Amino acid sequence: LASPVSGKDISCVAAASGFFSNIRTPAALVAGAALGNVWVQIPDQSKNKRLQTMYSILMMLAVILEFSTVFCATASDVRIMSGLYSSPMAKSTVAFLKREMELPFVAVRLNFMMGIVCFMMSLAVRALATLPGNTGKAAALLLIGAVGSMFCMINMTFVQFLAMLGRYIELWIADSAFTVPGALTIICICGATFYMVRDYLTLTLDASNAKQDPVKPKTE
Protein backbone atom coordinates (compact mmCIF):
# COMPACT_ATOMS: atom_id res chain seq x y z
CA LEU A 1 0.00 0.00 0.00
CA ALA A 2 1.14 3.54 -0.62
CA SER A 3 2.18 5.62 2.36
CA PRO A 4 -0.62 8.04 3.30
CA VAL A 5 1.91 10.85 3.69
CA SER A 6 3.83 10.28 0.44
CA GLY A 7 1.27 12.05 -1.74
CA LYS A 8 2.46 10.07 -4.76
CA ASP A 9 0.23 7.91 -6.91
CA ILE A 10 1.32 4.31 -7.37
CA SER A 11 0.08 1.39 -9.44
CA CYS A 12 -2.41 -0.50 -7.25
CA VAL A 13 -3.47 -3.29 -9.59
CA ALA A 14 -1.22 -5.99 -8.12
CA ALA A 15 -2.13 -5.14 -4.53
CA ALA A 16 -5.86 -5.01 -5.34
CA SER A 17 -5.69 -8.38 -7.06
CA GLY A 18 -3.74 -9.75 -4.11
CA PHE A 19 -6.42 -8.55 -1.69
CA PHE A 20 -9.16 -10.49 -3.47
CA SER A 21 -6.94 -13.53 -3.97
CA ASN A 22 -5.78 -13.67 -0.36
CA ILE A 23 -9.25 -13.43 1.17
CA ARG A 24 -10.58 -16.38 -0.84
CA THR A 25 -8.52 -19.01 1.00
CA PRO A 26 -9.64 -18.29 4.59
CA ALA A 27 -13.21 -17.75 3.37
CA ALA A 28 -13.20 -21.16 1.69
CA LEU A 29 -11.79 -22.79 4.83
CA VAL A 30 -14.51 -21.29 7.04
CA ALA A 31 -17.18 -22.21 4.49
CA GLY A 32 -15.96 -25.82 4.43
CA ALA A 33 -15.94 -26.08 8.21
CA ALA A 34 -19.43 -24.58 8.46
CA LEU A 35 -20.81 -26.74 5.65
CA GLY A 36 -19.73 -29.88 7.48
CA ASN A 37 -21.65 -28.80 10.58
CA VAL A 38 -24.87 -27.37 9.13
CA TRP A 39 -26.86 -30.57 9.61
CA VAL A 40 -25.40 -31.56 12.99
CA GLN A 41 -28.22 -32.33 15.40
CA ILE A 42 -28.10 -31.12 19.00
CA PRO A 43 -28.73 -34.02 21.44
CA ASP A 44 -32.11 -34.22 23.20
CA GLN A 45 -33.87 -31.87 20.80
CA SER A 46 -37.11 -32.13 22.78
CA LYS A 47 -35.55 -29.66 25.25
CA ASN A 48 -33.45 -27.67 22.77
CA LYS A 49 -35.63 -27.05 19.72
CA ARG A 50 -35.05 -23.31 19.74
CA LEU A 51 -31.30 -23.76 20.20
CA GLN A 52 -31.27 -26.25 17.32
CA THR A 53 -33.05 -23.70 15.12
CA MET A 54 -30.62 -20.91 16.09
CA TYR A 55 -27.62 -23.18 15.56
CA SER A 56 -28.73 -24.33 12.10
CA ILE A 57 -29.61 -20.81 10.94
CA LEU A 58 -26.32 -19.29 12.13
CA MET A 59 -24.27 -22.09 10.56
CA MET A 60 -26.20 -21.77 7.29
CA LEU A 61 -25.60 -18.00 7.29
CA ALA A 62 -21.88 -18.64 7.78
CA VAL A 63 -21.86 -20.94 4.73
CA ILE A 64 -23.78 -18.42 2.59
CA LEU A 65 -21.65 -15.45 3.59
CA GLU A 66 -18.31 -17.20 3.10
CA PHE A 67 -19.28 -18.73 -0.25
CA SER A 68 -20.48 -15.26 -1.30
CA THR A 69 -17.06 -13.94 -0.34
CA VAL A 70 -15.29 -16.53 -2.48
CA PHE A 71 -17.60 -15.89 -5.45
CA CYS A 72 -17.42 -12.08 -5.25
CA ALA A 73 -13.63 -12.06 -4.74
CA THR A 74 -13.13 -14.33 -7.75
CA ALA A 75 -15.37 -12.19 -9.97
CA SER A 76 -13.62 -9.00 -8.82
CA ASP A 77 -10.19 -10.48 -9.47
CA VAL A 78 -11.23 -11.38 -13.00
CA ARG A 79 -12.48 -7.83 -13.51
CA ILE A 80 -9.10 -6.44 -12.45
CA MET A 81 -7.24 -8.85 -14.75
CA SER A 82 -9.52 -7.75 -17.60
CA GLY A 83 -8.36 -4.15 -17.22
CA LEU A 84 -11.85 -2.82 -16.52
CA TYR A 85 -10.75 0.24 -14.56
CA SER A 86 -10.16 3.88 -15.43
CA SER A 87 -6.57 4.06 -14.19
CA PRO A 88 -4.23 1.78 -12.21
CA MET A 89 -2.83 4.76 -10.31
CA ALA A 90 -4.07 5.92 -6.91
CA LYS A 91 -2.81 7.21 -3.57
CA SER A 92 -3.39 3.77 -2.01
CA THR A 93 -4.93 0.41 -2.83
CA VAL A 94 -7.97 1.25 -0.69
CA ALA A 95 -8.47 4.46 -2.66
CA PHE A 96 -8.17 2.50 -5.92
CA LEU A 97 -10.74 -0.10 -4.82
CA LYS A 98 -13.17 2.52 -3.52
CA ARG A 99 -12.93 4.40 -6.81
CA GLU A 100 -13.12 1.48 -9.22
CA MET A 101 -15.15 -1.24 -7.47
CA GLU A 102 -16.44 -0.04 -4.14
CA LEU A 103 -19.38 -2.44 -3.92
CA PRO A 104 -17.30 -5.63 -4.35
CA PHE A 105 -14.65 -4.26 -1.98
CA VAL A 106 -17.19 -3.55 0.78
CA ALA A 107 -19.15 -6.75 0.09
CA VAL A 108 -16.10 -9.00 0.34
CA ARG A 109 -14.96 -7.46 3.64
CA LEU A 110 -18.44 -7.44 5.17
CA ASN A 111 -19.39 -10.97 4.07
CA PHE A 112 -16.10 -12.44 5.23
CA MET A 113 -16.24 -10.86 8.67
CA MET A 114 -19.95 -11.56 9.23
CA GLY A 115 -19.46 -15.16 8.11
CA ILE A 116 -16.86 -15.68 10.82
CA VAL A 117 -19.12 -13.96 13.38
CA CYS A 118 -22.04 -16.26 12.49
CA PHE A 119 -19.76 -19.29 12.70
CA MET A 120 -18.52 -18.26 16.16
CA MET A 121 -22.05 -17.53 17.39
CA SER A 122 -23.25 -20.93 16.17
CA LEU A 123 -20.45 -22.55 18.19
CA ALA A 124 -21.61 -20.58 21.23
CA VAL A 125 -25.16 -21.88 20.78
CA ARG A 126 -23.91 -25.46 20.42
CA ALA A 127 -21.71 -25.14 23.52
CA LEU A 128 -24.67 -23.84 25.49
CA ALA A 129 -26.85 -26.73 24.32
CA THR A 130 -24.41 -29.62 24.69
CA LEU A 131 -21.90 -28.89 27.47
CA PRO A 132 -23.11 -29.62 30.99
CA GLY A 133 -24.13 -26.97 33.48
CA ASN A 134 -22.01 -23.88 33.88
CA THR A 135 -19.35 -25.25 31.54
CA GLY A 136 -21.62 -24.63 28.57
CA LYS A 137 -22.40 -21.11 29.76
CA ALA A 138 -18.69 -20.38 30.24
CA ALA A 139 -17.79 -21.65 26.77
CA ALA A 140 -20.63 -19.68 25.19
CA LEU A 141 -19.56 -16.49 26.96
CA LEU A 142 -15.95 -16.96 25.84
CA LEU A 143 -17.06 -17.32 22.22
CA ILE A 144 -19.36 -14.30 22.45
CA GLY A 145 -16.52 -12.33 24.03
CA ALA A 146 -14.29 -13.27 21.10
CA VAL A 147 -16.97 -11.95 18.72
CA GLY A 148 -17.04 -8.68 20.66
CA SER A 149 -13.28 -8.43 20.33
CA MET A 150 -13.62 -8.98 16.57
CA PHE A 151 -16.01 -6.03 16.31
CA CYS A 152 -13.54 -3.90 18.23
CA MET A 153 -10.86 -4.81 15.68
CA ILE A 154 -13.24 -4.03 12.81
CA ASN A 155 -13.94 -0.58 14.26
CA MET A 156 -10.20 0.09 14.47
CA THR A 157 -9.91 -0.01 10.67
CA PHE A 158 -10.50 2.97 8.40
CA VAL A 159 -14.29 2.49 8.54
CA GLN A 160 -16.46 1.25 11.42
CA PHE A 161 -18.81 -1.70 11.10
CA LEU A 162 -22.13 0.16 11.10
CA ALA A 163 -20.83 2.67 8.57
CA MET A 164 -19.61 -0.19 6.37
CA LEU A 165 -22.95 -1.99 6.64
CA GLY A 166 -24.86 1.19 5.78
CA ARG A 167 -22.58 1.87 2.81
CA TYR A 168 -23.04 -1.70 1.55
CA ILE A 169 -26.82 -1.42 1.67
CA GLU A 170 -26.68 1.96 -0.08
CA LEU A 171 -24.40 0.68 -2.85
CA TRP A 172 -26.35 -2.56 -3.30
CA ILE A 173 -29.69 -0.78 -3.63
CA ALA A 174 -28.26 1.65 -6.18
CA ASP A 175 -26.55 -1.10 -8.19
CA SER A 176 -28.78 -4.17 -7.95
CA ALA A 177 -32.13 -3.59 -6.23
CA PHE A 178 -34.00 -2.69 -9.41
CA THR A 179 -32.70 -5.59 -11.49
CA VAL A 180 -34.36 -8.98 -11.88
CA PRO A 181 -31.70 -10.86 -9.84
CA GLY A 182 -31.81 -8.12 -7.21
CA ALA A 183 -35.59 -8.28 -6.91
CA LEU A 184 -35.40 -12.07 -6.65
CA THR A 185 -32.81 -11.72 -3.88
CA ILE A 186 -35.03 -9.34 -1.91
CA ILE A 187 -38.03 -11.65 -2.27
CA CYS A 188 -36.05 -14.70 -1.12
CA ILE A 189 -34.52 -12.88 1.87
CA CYS A 190 -37.93 -11.56 2.97
CA GLY A 191 -39.46 -15.02 2.58
CA ALA A 192 -36.65 -16.70 4.51
CA THR A 193 -36.91 -14.14 7.31
CA PHE A 194 -40.69 -14.64 7.54
CA TYR A 195 -40.43 -18.42 7.82
CA MET A 196 -37.54 -18.33 10.30
CA VAL A 197 -39.30 -15.84 12.58
CA ARG A 198 -42.59 -17.75 12.38
CA ASP A 199 -40.87 -21.04 13.19
CA TYR A 200 -38.97 -19.56 16.12
CA LEU A 201 -42.10 -17.92 17.55
CA THR A 202 -43.98 -21.21 17.22
CA LEU A 203 -41.25 -23.06 19.11
CA THR A 204 -41.24 -20.35 21.81
CA LEU A 205 -45.02 -20.61 22.18
CA ASP A 206 -44.87 -24.41 22.36
CA ALA A 207 -42.19 -24.24 25.05
CA SER A 208 -44.27 -21.75 27.05
CA ASN A 209 -47.37 -23.96 26.82
CA ALA A 210 -45.35 -27.00 27.87
CA LYS A 211 -44.22 -25.19 31.04
CA GLN A 212 -47.76 -24.12 31.87
CA ASP A 213 -49.30 -27.53 31.17
CA PRO A 214 -46.72 -30.16 32.19
CA VAL A 215 -47.52 -33.71 31.18
CA LYS A 216 -48.85 -35.62 34.16
CA PRO A 217 -47.38 -39.07 34.80
CA LYS A 218 -49.66 -41.93 33.96
CA THR A 219 -51.18 -43.79 36.91
CA GLU A 220 -52.29 -47.38 36.77
Describe the structure.
The longest helix is centred in the N-terminal third of the chain and has 33 residues. The chain contains 7 helices and 2 strands. It is an all-alpha fold and 220 residues long. A two-stranded antiparallel sheet has the order 1-2.
Give a short synopsis of this structure.
The protein is an all-alpha fold and 220 residues long. The termini are far apart.
H and E string: EHHEHHHHH
Low-confidence residue ranges:
none
Structural class: mainly alpha
Report the count of strand segments: 2
Shape: elongated
Radius of gyration: 22 Å
Number of helices: 7
Mean pLDDT: 87
Search tags:
7 helices, mainly alpha, 75% helix
List the helices and strands and how they pair.
Blueprint: E1 10-11, H1 13-35, H2 49-81, E2 89-90, H3 93-100, H4 102-130, H5 133-155, H6 161-176, H7 180-212
Antiparallel strand pairs: 1-2
Helix pairs in contact: 1-2, 1-4, 2-4, 2-7, 3-4, 4-5, 4-6
